[in-house]
Amino acid sequence: MTRRMTLSFSVRDSKTCTTQVMTWTRISRIRLQKDHFVSLTLAPLKYLPFYLLLKFFSRDNDSEEDEDMTIKPDDSIIVCASNDDDVSHLEIWILEVLSDGTVNMYVHHEIIIPAFPLCTAWLDCPIKSGEGKGNFIAVGSMELAIEIWDLDLDEVQPAAVLGGIADIKKKGKKKTIKYKKDSHSDSVLGLAWNKEYRNMLASASADQSVKVWDVNTSSCTVTMNDHTDKVQAVAWNPFASQILLSGSFDHTVCLKDVRYPSHGGYKFPVSADVESLAWDPHSEHSFVVSLENGTVTSFDIRLASSDPTSATKPCFTIHAHDKAVSSMSFNPLVPNLLATGSTDKMVKLWDLSNNQPSCIATRNTKAGAVFSVSFSDDCPFFLAIGGSKGKLQLWDISSEDAVLNKYGKYAAQKRPPKS
């Protein structure tokens, strides 16, 4: 089996005194290899408050060390979940663009986590208080629990735990496991944070279920059992925040309104195990799904039918890679630009204009088998890449002539700060 990464980028708002993070994640199927990155989370650093309290930092450090530990307003942050020598941890990377245009990246600090990470999702909802904004990463793992870690604190325990094992009893050779109420009963493979209803976190599991959690109360509010095999990925519609996609090894994608969990939803049949899902941030009706057989398929949800005997026709299907397409990322600032990463070690950029996709750039980033790709939410031409070699890679796609020729007008564009 091979393994996986997710990505998170961030930027600081000077009005909040320290820093802020925003993240988007892309997870794919369980792939386990030794001593490599598992999950990468990329986020642009200007939307959320990030009050970093490092216990190991003292006033006695010299000015150069102080400079390294200070997160500047125009820095970006990348959170990488990784595993080295059986030790799992979250690495918080700083990405800074120097005055000469070169990019400097380094690890700012790290948080040791107790379980092997499979997926991540960033969220800004303050755990339990529900007021203001926080800076948290939810981590799904081979364990049954979802742990939520405060990235602003150097802590040894998660801020909250969703589900998990309540008790294990042994009687002779027989072992009885008691789960916490509404817990998943197998590995958590996918996570998605709802940016509109900020206390809501969706999870996908190998137990074939999808759950929606209220992180303020650490309780499960909805459980859906619409699949017949492991559920690999979940994704909220950015335009209609009650709509949730789930993709499974049963070769279907399910579209559900979580307000009506008993409704069967709408099924989109696909030709292989689902690896990842992504909504088009520039079109409320469109999403893409990547598969284990190397294909990427696009659907328009307006064409969906509730009749299980009627298969929804895709907008397009492309044979994107020679192996599984483990991760995808739409550019949040540039319409019709999609990045795909694969276990064939290649990363590709696609122009999806008019539902006639064309590959405009291909690169072997030397990351090994690619498990995660994610565009920066602030800098349209920065693409973070994580793979089996365990080294974070950054591709400045503006170095590609085809990208500049088609999308050069977006080079100076940045997402406006939220009010």
UniProtKB/TrEMBL annotation:
In terms of domain of life, where is this protein from? Eukaryota
Pfam families assigned to the protein according to its UniProt record, in alphabetical order: WD40
Keyword match Methyltransferase: no
Mention one GO biological process in which this protein takes part, according to its record: rRNA processing
Q: Which InterPro entries match?
A: PWP1 (IPR044285), TonB_box_CS (IPR010916), WD40/YVTN_repeat-like_dom_sf (IPR015943), WD40_PAC1 (IPR020472), WD40_repeat_CS (IPR019775), WD40_repeat_dom_sf (IPR036322), WD40_rpt (IPR001680)
Keyword terms of this UniProt record: Phosphoprotein, Repeat, WD repeat
> Per its record, how is this protein called by name?
Uncharacterized WD repeat-containing protein C17D11.16 isoform X2
Q: Which organism is it from?
A: Nicotiana tabacum (Common tobacco)
Lineage of the organism: Eukaryota, Viridiplantae, Streptophyta, Embryophyta, Tracheophyta
Q: Which gene encodes it?
A: LOC107784045
